[in-house]
Structure prediction request, 529 residues.
Amino acid sequence: MRKHTRIGPGRKAATLVTACLAMLLLSVDLTVLNLAVPQLTADLRPSSTQLLWIADVYGFALGSLLITMGSIGDRIGRRRLLLIGTVAFGAASALTAYASSPEQLIGARALLGVAGATIMPSTLSIVRNTFTDPVERAKAIGIWSSVSSAGFALGPLVGGVLLEHFWWGSVFLINLPVMAIIFVIGFIVLPESKNPEPGRLDALSVLLSVVGLAGLIYTIKDAAHDGLLQSDVGIAVLVAVGALYLFARRQGRLATPLIDVQLFRHRAFSASVGATVMAMFALAGVGFVGSQYFQVVLGWSALHSALAQLPGVLGAVFGAVLAPRLAAGWGRSRTVGLGLSLVTVGLLQYLWLSTDVNYPAVVAALVVTSAGVAMTFTVSADSVMAAVPKERAGAASAVAETAYELGGALGIAVLGSLLSRAYRNSLDLPAGLPGDVGQAARESLALAMRAAARLPEEAGRALGASARDAFMDGLHLAVGVCAALAAVTALAAWRALRGTDTTVPVSPDEVPEPATDRSPAKGGAGREA
Prediction:
């Protein structure tokens, strides 16, 4: 066996900091766009469908490629893939910042998601291979998870500060210096690790997963915008279901599948993945509609809106810190159930919001929802890893990361689509409006308020009031549906996780060999964690 150089405490700490910094930037980038929506809408004038694509194509591109990129990292080295990803992420950020049309912005955001998909699985795999002691590894992954949750809440603050002084593209341009720092530090301190026997990467599985997810998202978006009875929606449903069915069947037959579908036979594994999707669904979806509420309905500046949402950061940190202690005393099932119940209660607080300012209700909604999300995500991530044997840990972590990103992207797509459809159905246009004004007003609240500003005072005031009322109808519908889903998921997760609260510690012979400074570890078929 080849000798390995053990990594000292200082380098371990530097590795964790580098991985967390990369993860923080990816999480921030998923929500930082929310506050820029009004400005980029005024500048690029996207349709409501294009606006949704701009918001969530990053998350879907990232989420759909995580498992593929994780497999590539197994082959070429996780450190190498992360460094390649940082360069690509910086380049894509520059393209996004200077996009001059909705189509360019959508394309650039998709490239940003592809680059992000190379970074996220690398960070967790590097952490797991660096911290070989089970106790140290659990603490390190807990810190990584906490940073991920905090990043969601910090995105609006970072965006608000930048938008107060610069144009909307600055929320993407700020990625360049951060990625340069990650690249330099990562090049110096990160250890390399790869799977010596990763198996063949199945190109057909990659294609089927991408086609299936793309068809699913197209269905969600177009059904919300044009209705379920449209012919293209029906075609998209058939494509999505067919591709995902073939993908699942093929994974069961491959020696080295992209996703080990047998993992989902574990009740605790499936329930934990579902809880993660629901938590991120709620956080990202409410963040997307909430930013529009602050800026367009209440008329607050971007910075004011970001500062108003700062209590959410405190809630997320509190939930992440409290979760391990609750899980140790109450068990995973009760803690995840409590987390999703808090999400439900927090979402219901949004039903008290109106076109008038009620900031105490806003604070209550933000703190309770964020604490519940962080609590759920922290314990669910641990449950996913505890539900499977060590030889499947790599596949389990890839699925957990995919659930994390897809949950966030689905939240924006589904709740944003629900809000947009309810807004159009509820909007009562004042009589006598020009046709082009009425058409623009029905596209989005931001365009309606812009159109109202160009009308005579009385007509503009009437259109603005009608548009804000219609938006609130859509917001209440969206958060009501989300709260109902969270409540159902809380009950399902509690029931499914019962009996899995006690886990067997990792025995010494199950501890993987430590990551090395330069060479991959030998021995053991299958993907490493």
Observations:
- The chain is about 75% helix and 0% strand.
- The two ends are 20 Å apart (CA to CA).
- Confidence is low (pLDDT under 50) at residues 502-529.
